[in-house]
Write a structure and sequence with these properties.
By secondary structure, this protein is an alpha/beta fold. It has 15 helices and 19 strands. Strands 2-1-3-4-5 form a five-stranded parallel beta sheet, sandwiched between helices. A five-stranded parallel beta sheet has the order 7-6-8-9-10, sandwiched between helices. Strands 12-16-17-19-18 form a five-stranded mixed beta sheet.
């Protein structure tokens, strides 16, 4: 499919805001931009036109952005459409409802073009990650079909439109909060610049026109110190025109003027000023007032970060749930196989007590893995603290291989377990978490058995080294296109897989202070996974 230009749909009931967003998108290189005034109109456009990305305001009449998002996610043909919600909402319950409805990214007003571009990149990147998993599963399903007509194949190729990334975002070199000083006298500019240069990024202009140019630019200031009496455009006109432009309407203004009568101060306040400072300036008082309003600026930035964290936390929970479900399949399938074997008339089952012990161990491991989901969540969110214990790693590997031999008996694999490494006649012990080890090696052995060709060999071996080295090796090689991202999320091409097995294995290995590496031999047609873990000396 050819690489298409992104088609944007901007949904906002405020006409000026639609125009501003459209202009910013065009500056980012967008060619085709559609607009709608509410959710109902947006849905009508989406069902008639091809759209790659929706940018919608949250609070709108007729149909809100949240209602639009829910309608899109409920529509079979639209549900994978990337959705960026733009809002000034401060109620976290509302934001959580938006996250639960399946939004891809949240952008808090007011925002700069750089932040808009960054969130568009995040929206597309995350959706592409989701689409890769969907396309892998769809591809596997299509390949499983004996015959596929042309029309069906074409419709499958349209599931995920190919879209380019947004231009790279270049942020200002000075990331400190910024102040714009507007005064026609150079002496006043220098005085105020020296007062704030150490703590803030300060810019100065000597005219109202210059102030409006900066305030409507891609890098507007966080606060404006505005003189009133200036030649040409005075401070009143600057403030009035700032309030007419969505990108600058919320920038705090502190008037600094020698005009101190009540009428002047009332007019300043009516134009949306947050404070008034009279000349001659009390520098200590001005510094304090600026500091107070910069706290508001920082709170706004922190709120955007908080919303980003809420969204990421929600995604992390989803991933952890998928990992847990994925990890449970292997032992449950093994336990079921054992029970079915004992229930059959197979005379090869000489010692049913051994099988019952395996079933018991497996059920206990399943119960433990349910508890494991909370630990994975802590790892993903950086809150996990390892409490290492000695682990008889050879015993864990042996049990996993026994279960795999039952689960994959139909493939007639030759599973070799070389796990009896010893020191001074005693089994070697790893230093880590037994549940983590069981989960990660169960995943890796299961993946190796699934990937191994029929009647081929899978080897699991433990080397008596420091650190301990565990090898899982199977015939067959990982496809070349997957190798660079083998341990990333959603790399699976299996219909039933979650794409999280190797990702969770890496997560659990590194949480124990170990390492995991992939070794491919195209000449020998083998795939080897090496896991190192700290050992008890």
């Amino acid at each position: 499919m050819p690489n298409l230009k992104i088609v944007y749909l901007v949904v906002d009931d405020f006409e000026v805001m639609r125009q501003v967003t459209t202009r910013q998108l065009r500056n980012l290189g967008a060619d085709k931009i559609l607009t709608a005034t509410n959710g109902i109109e947006a849905l009508r456009i989406l069902r008639q036109e091809h759209v790659d990305l929706v940018l919608s305001d949250l609070n709108m009449p007729v149909m809100s952005g949240l209602e639009l998002l829910k309608a899109i996610r409920a529509d079979e043909h639209l549900r994978r459409l990337p959705f960026l919600m733009i809002t000034s909402e401060y109620d976290r319950q509302v934001i959580q409802a938006v996250i639960d409805a399946g939004v891809n990214s949240l952008l808090l007003k007011p925002y700069t073009p750089q932040r808009l571009a960054a969130h568009i990149q995040k929206t597309i990147a995350y959706q592409h990650q989701q689409e890769e998993q969907f396309q892998a599963q769809a591809s596997a399903i299509l390949q499983a079909q004996p015959v596929m007509n042309t029309s069906t194949s074409e419709s499958a190729s349209n599931f995920a439109p190919s879209v380019p990334s947004c231009p790279d975002v270049t942020l200002p070199k000075d990331s400190r909060p910024s102040i714009l000083i507007v005064d026609d006298l150079v002496a006043n500019q220098l005085l105020l610049s020296r007062l704030f240069n150490n703590n803030y990024f300060v810019r100065t202009v000597d005219s109202g026109e210059g102030a409006l140019s900066i305030c409507s630019s891609d890098t507007p200031p966080d606060l404006v110190l505005l003189d009133i009496m200036m030649p040409g455009m005075d401070g009143f006109e600057v403030a009035r025109r700032m309030r007419e432009y969505p990108g600058s309407e919320n920038i705090p203004i502190i008037f600094v003027s020698a005009m101190t009568d009540n009428a002047t101060q009332l007019k300043c306040m009516s134009l949306g000023a947050v404070d008034f400072v009279s000349k001659p300036i009390d520098l200590k008082l001005l510094r304090l007032r600026v500091s107070n309003f910069m706290r508001y600026v920082e709170m706004h930035k922190q709120l955007q970060t908080a919303y980003d964290d809420m969204l990421e936390l929600s995604r992390t929970r989803d991933v952890v749930d998928q990992i847990t479900r994925h990890d449970l399949r292997g032992p449950l399938a093994g336990a079921l196989g054992l029970v079915q074997a004992m229930a059959s008339d197979d005379v090869s089952i000489i010692n049913p007590k051994v099988h019952l012990r395996l079933v018991e161990d497996t059920v206990l491991q399943v119960l433990n893995m349910i508890n494991l989901s909370a630990e994975i969540f802590k790892i993903e969110t950086g809150r996990f603290q390892l409490q290492p214990q000695p682990i008889q790693i050879g015993d864990i590997l042996q049990r996993i291989v026994q279960m795999a031999s039952v689960t994959f008996s139909e493939k007639k694999l030759a599973l070799k377990a070389q796990t009896d490494a010893q020191t001074n006649g005693k089994p070697v012990h790893a230093l880590g978490d037994a549940l983590f080890c069981y989960s990660l090696f169960q995943n890796l052995v299961k993946n190796a058995c699934e990937a191994a060709p029929f009647q081929s060999q899978v080897v699991v071996s433990l080397s008596n080294t420091d650190p301990l080295r565990i090898l899982i090796k199977n015939s067959g090689v990982v496809p070349a296109e997957i190798r660079p991202r083998f341990f990333e999320k959603f790399t699976s091409k299996k219909i039933s897989g979650s794409g999280l097995g190797t990702y969770s294995a890496k997560l659990l290995t590194e949480a124990q202070g170990g390492k995991i590496t992939l070794d491919i031999s195209d000449d020998d047609n083998t795939t080897s996974l090496w896991v190192t873990l700290p050992r008890v000396l």
